């Protein structure tokens, strides 16, 4: 069974996220999403999410492509996660291109094209003017 992992905040879930998750799952048989915790977001990523970790986790778990959601607590857990969950392929959108090439010692690293035009930030901005 080919195991795939990806990481992110996935706030205000939108079709760009779904496009990423669908293509990530297509690379294997089992998709793990390491979901940024509220603490990691606010303390290290500088992100204040609309939905809490638990709410974002429930949304992700409802997606047919997602098999398991685990917490992403810091920037440095990826090598351990790849080993612990016996991951074959690590996937991220290409806004992260080459940022995680160090994982190539542990698994395949794939950067997928981001969906243009949509982002959580854009949704928040657009809603401000509604
Ligand atoms: N994404 C995408 N297209 C968009 C928006 C997002 O393909 N229009 C992808 C991103 O490239 C990322 C995933 O969806 O692979 C999740 O996006 P974010 O929640 O913004 O993730 P980010 O905050 O970049 O967190 O350790 C890695 C970080 O946790 C990544």
Report the total helices. Answer: 5
Tally the beta strands: 5
Tell me the major beta sheet: 5 strands, parallel
> Which shape, going by the Cα principal axes?
globular
Q: How far apart are the first and last residues' alpha carbons, in Å? A: 46 Å
Average pLDDT rating: 97
Q: H/E order of the elements? A: EHEHHEHEEH
Q: What small molecules accompany the polymer chains? A: [cytidine-5'-phosphate] glycerylphosphoric acid ester
Share of helical residues: 25-40%
Report on the structure:
By secondary structure, the protein is α/β, with parallel strands linked by helices. Helices cover 34% and strands 22% of the residues. It has a five-stranded parallel beta sheet. Strand 1 (3-8), helix 1 (15-25) and strand 2 form a beta-alpha-beta unit. The longest helix is centred in the first third of the chain and has 11 residues, at 15-25. It is globular, with a radius of gyration of 14 Å. It starts with a strand and ends with a helix. The model has no long low-confidence stretch (mean pLDDT 97). The structure holds [cytidine-5'-phosphate] glycerylphosphoric acid ester (C2G). The site of [cytidine-5'-phosphate] glycerylphosphoric acid ester has 17 residues, from strand 1, helix 1 and strand 4. This is Glycerol-3-phosphate cytidylyltransferase.
